[in-house]
Amino acid sequence: MEDISKWLKEIFERKEEPLSELINKYSPSIRRFILGIVKNDEDAKELTQETFLRFLNHPQNFKEVDEMRNYLFQIAHNLSLTKVTKASSRREEFYDELPEKGVDENLSKSIIKKEEREFVLNLLQILPPQQRKVVILKIWEDLTFKEIAKIMSLSEGSVKAHYFFAMKKLREEVFKKEEENGRN
Q1: Residue 171 to residues 58, 125, 143, Cα–Cα distance (Å)
Q2: Is 98 within the bounds of a domain?
Q3: What are the phi and psi torsion angles at 53 (to 5°)?
Q4: Nearest alpha-carbon partner for 68 in 129, 177, 150
Q5: What is the pLDDT of residues 47-91, one digit of tens each?
């Protein structure tokens, strides 16, 4: 992937190896991002495929891989918003889609980890959609505020504000939950 223009040319020519490399590299994170917006696994799968089709049907020149990744997220963002605004998506659990850092052999640790992930996902649902998207892109996809701003067509300052208020609200909810658990 050293020469991005050669790699992109091969992708847009629909050569199997570079196309598979592109899809394998970006599909999981694009799907998680879409899933965080539409909250439906089937819709997320479909929109992930549509993201790559749109990418392939609208060739662009990118100077670096990060520009291409951001463009994929932009396409995914726009498709997801269209889906959500056209029809209310069915609500389904999507906690299995979030990446885990290492797999624990110990069953009790795995159960605790799953409960923590479910707790985090439930917390994310209390956030307004813009804040939720910013948090997902910042924390799980490790994008910069500048990259998120471009993807979401917002100013960098707006993205930072969404992140700040989201984290503030999440901290308040965690504190409230800890207080409730302390009383029990």
Answers
A1: 41, 14, 21
A2: no
A3: -65, -45
A4: 150
A5: 999 999 899 888 787 888 888 888 899 899 888 888 876 644 333
Asked if residue 120 and residue 80 are part of one domain, the reply reads no
Write out the residue range of the structural domain in which residue 51 sits.
1-92
CA torsion sign for 160, 81, 23, 91 is positive
Cα dihedral 113, 73, 27, 34 sign: positive
What are the Cα distances from residue 3, in Å, to 138, 150, 151, 160, 173?
Answer: 27, 24, 24, 33, 47
Find tokens 């396409």 and name the residue: 75
Largest Cα–Cα distance in the chain? 62
Look at residue 106 and tell me whether its pLDDT is greater than 70. Answer: no
Between residues 151 and 114, which one has the greater pLDDT? 151
Spatial neighbors of 179 by CB under 8 A, at least 6 apart, are: none
Q: Token pair for residue 68?
A: 């291409």
Distance CA 4, CA 1 (A): 6
pTM: 0.61
